[in-house]
Design a protein that fits this description.
This protein has 103 residues and is mainly alpha-helical. The termini are far apart. The longest helix has 27 residues. Helix 2 runs parallel beside helix 3. It is rod-shaped. It has 3 helices and 2 strands. Helix content is 44%, strand content 4%. The protein has a two-stranded antiparallel ribbon with strand order 1-2. 2% of the residues are buried. It has a domain of 68 residues.
């Protein structure tokens, strides 16, 4: 049987030339960008499907608004339909403790 020297053996057309790696970094960055963009799209679709954004913004629209407007997040005013837990409101008349200063 004849010995074949691996150094003298020609490369077949099926094996890639590992010496030329120009453009490999660009290809890896493009693949990484594609993965990141697809994950972002999937996450946004899932958030829209679960209505997660409305749940996250809910306290800002209700509790913080009431706390700013009436002084307590549990209080309700005339705009909500009934007056509840509002100490400045008595029988249809709202008492302002700190009236605006007219200059």
């Amino acid at each position: 049987m004849e010995q074949i020297d691996p150094a003298s053996e020609k490369r077949s057309s099926f094996s890639p030339d590992l010496g030329s790696t120009s453009g490999q970094a660009v290809l890896e960055y493009i693949l990484l960008l594609a993965i990141v963009v697809s994950l972002f799209v999937l996450l946004t679709q899932k958030m829209l499907d679960l209505d997660l954004l409305q749940r996250m913004v809910g306290p800002y629209k209700t509790e913080f608004e009431r706390a700013y407007r009436y002084g307590s997040p549990k209080s309700q005013g005339v705009a909500e339909g009934q007056v509840k837990n509002l100490p400045q409101y008595e029988q249809g008349f709202r008492i302002f403790y700190n009236p605006p200063i007219n200059r």
